[in-house]
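Hypothesis: this fold can be encoded by more than one sequence.
Test: take the structure tokens below, design a sequence, compare later.
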């Protein structure tokens, strides 16, 4: 391509002290030196994204650029959070001058949307989320989609529990926070009181010597909105937000659903590169091809650059919000990448992120901070717990309360722990069956206590790696031995009838002869009607391959049981 022959390149390499023949590969740095000598510009070929980075949502690795010269400024992506009825949607409504509030049930945002507005010739992308839960759910799946958080606080009502929760979520995500003090047009507005209340949570306004930008606005009259947008652009400038628009696109799914016309669709914000119609892509463990792409106004578009929100169609099923989308060269690569991510996902489901995992990470020195979501029944109990936890000292590991509040343990608490790699601790708090299911799905340990000293002792034990798991034995059921078909050295094939509850494959069994336990063994295979079975229930007959040293007799009772380790869970 350069027009230089191999002999000339080899000669140039020799001048630089490198002996290489025509068949040898040279590294990029060496090639760059030779290219500079020849006056030729070269660019490094981008390597394929690893399935591990896609699965863990490691955007830092996915967005990494070898050549900083390719980076260009991109619009900031802003999330708006705050308490219910403090005017989040009305504020966005005022910013983009469309009427969204009137179309929404009960004034609560029913969907996640993304919009772009322009100020001083620069674009800003806004995410309209139904609260910090969606923001945290995306973080729990690895997504780091937002650059700036705007915390909306009503000037007449001040800081509310959800306000505190929202700012704690933003602080934990390490996102710069701008406070929009809304409803300043009201007669009973007290912006200074709001500033004082926020100061208790580490948000001190600039005019009081702090670092937090606070803008007084009215979503009803539009007062202060231009100033708020200028502050967002100023913060974005300080954050030095940049992306490479010439590379293959990497984006994050904000929401996904099923369209009656287009099938599975997803709202995607492009993090870097440019997404084109007909691009092959992998999103989470799915792969597809961009068939239709629309911008936030609903117009069809052929391409989308960094920070642009678009709706795309071309997936076999709907992805999850927070999934990473990245463009690949062809369908074959897309299929293989999707398969690799699926394998990693299945392996992750088997791995428990509970207290045992945390203790092993602390013991091996991998974990330097134990993150807690703390809930209590009263404010007095919560403050006492916080003070006591603050006094727990360990030279290797610190304790950080990432979210605290009064009341029952909620889905939001579990998702916060999932997003941050922490655990949930409750004091006299109630956990609903729905929240328990979510905790199981996310592999998050939820510990509940009625005695404050037990909670504090367990934190100390976790930090020192001494919290012993509780050994629990679960008896599954009993079966009576009816016939012995085959006897080998230490294996038997036997016919049994389940007389109590159920028998499960691959479990330990105790052998009862009369009322006496005479030995133990293992079920290595279980069959029902000549088919392999996971379990056989009461009243049914089954074939068992039994492994053990005890010779069995007809009439023996086999008791199937499991041993589980539990760390004082609910």
């Amino acid at each position: 391509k350069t027009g230089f022959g191999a002999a000339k390149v080899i000669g140039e390499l020799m001048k630089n002290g490198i002996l290489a023949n025509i068949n040898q590969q040279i590294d990029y740095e060496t090639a760059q030196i030779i290219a500079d000598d020849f006056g030729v510009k070269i660019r490094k070929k981008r390597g394929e994204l690893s399935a591990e980075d896609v699965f863990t949502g490691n955007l830092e690795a996915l967005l990494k650029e070898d050549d900083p010269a390719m980076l260009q400024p991109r619009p900031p992506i802003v999330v708006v959070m705050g308490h219910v009825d403090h005017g989040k949607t009305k504020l966005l409504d005022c910013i983009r001058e469309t009427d969204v509030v009137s179309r929404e049930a009960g004034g609560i945002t029913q969907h996640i949307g993304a919009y772009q507005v322009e100020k001083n010739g620069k674009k800003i992308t806004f995410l309209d989320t139904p609260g910090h839960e969606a923001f945290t759910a995306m973080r729990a799946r690895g997504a780091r989609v937002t650059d700036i958080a705007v915390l909306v606080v009503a000037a007449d009502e001040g800081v509310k529990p959800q306000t505190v929760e929202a700012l704690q979520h933003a602080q934990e995500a390490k996102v710069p926070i701008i406070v929009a003090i809304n409803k300043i047009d009201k007669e009973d507005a007290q912006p200074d009181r709001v500033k004082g209340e926020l100061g208790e949570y580490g948000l001190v306004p600039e005019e009081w010597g702090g670092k937090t930008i606070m803008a007084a606005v009215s979503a009803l009259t539009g007062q202060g909105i231009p100033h708020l947008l200028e502050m967002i652009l100023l913060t974005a400038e300080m954050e030095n937000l940049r992306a490479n628009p010439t590379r293959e696109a990497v984006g994050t799914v904000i929401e996904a659903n099923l369209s009656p016309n287009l099938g599975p669709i997803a709202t995607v914000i492009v993090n870097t590169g440019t997404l084109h119609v007909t691009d092959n892509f992998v999103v989470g463990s799915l792969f597809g091809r961009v068939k239709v792409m629309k911008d936030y106004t609903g117009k069809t578009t052929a391409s989308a650059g960094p920070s642009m929100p678009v709706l795309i169609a071309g997936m076999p099923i709907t992805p999850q919000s927070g999934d990473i989308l990245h463009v690949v060269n062809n369908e074959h690569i897309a299929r293989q990448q999707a398969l690799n991510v699926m394998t990693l996902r299945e392996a992750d489901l088997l791995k428990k992120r509970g207290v045992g995992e945390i203790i092993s990470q602390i013991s091996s020195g991998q974990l330097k901070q134990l993150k807690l979501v703390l809930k209590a029944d009263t404010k007095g109990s919560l403050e006492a717990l916080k003070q006591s936890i603050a006094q727990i000292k360990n030279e290797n590991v610190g304790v950080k309360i990432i979210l605290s509040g009064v009341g029952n343990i909620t889905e939001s608490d579990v998702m916060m722990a999932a997003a941050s790699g922490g655990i949930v601790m409750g004091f006299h708090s109630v956990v609903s069956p729905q929240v328990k299911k979510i905790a199981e799905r996310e592999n998050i340990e939820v510990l509940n206590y009625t005695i404050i000293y037990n909670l504090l002792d367990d934190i100390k034990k976790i930090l020192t790696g001494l919290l012993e798991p509780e050994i629990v034995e679960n008896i599954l059921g009993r079966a009576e031995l009816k016939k012995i078909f085959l006897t080998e050295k230490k294996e038997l094939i036997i016919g049994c009838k389940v007389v109590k509850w159920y028998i499960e494959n691959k479990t330990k069994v105790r052998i009862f002869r009369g009322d006496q336990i005479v030995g133990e063994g293992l079920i290595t295979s279980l069959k029902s009607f000549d088919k392999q079975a996971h379990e056989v229930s009461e009243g049914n007959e089954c074939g068992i391959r039994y492994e053990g040293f005890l010779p069995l007799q007809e009439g023996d009772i086999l008791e199937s049981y499991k041993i589980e380790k539990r760390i004082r869970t609910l």
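The longest helix spans residues 331-350. Residues 98-112 have pLDDT under 50 and may be disordered.
Hypothesis status: open.
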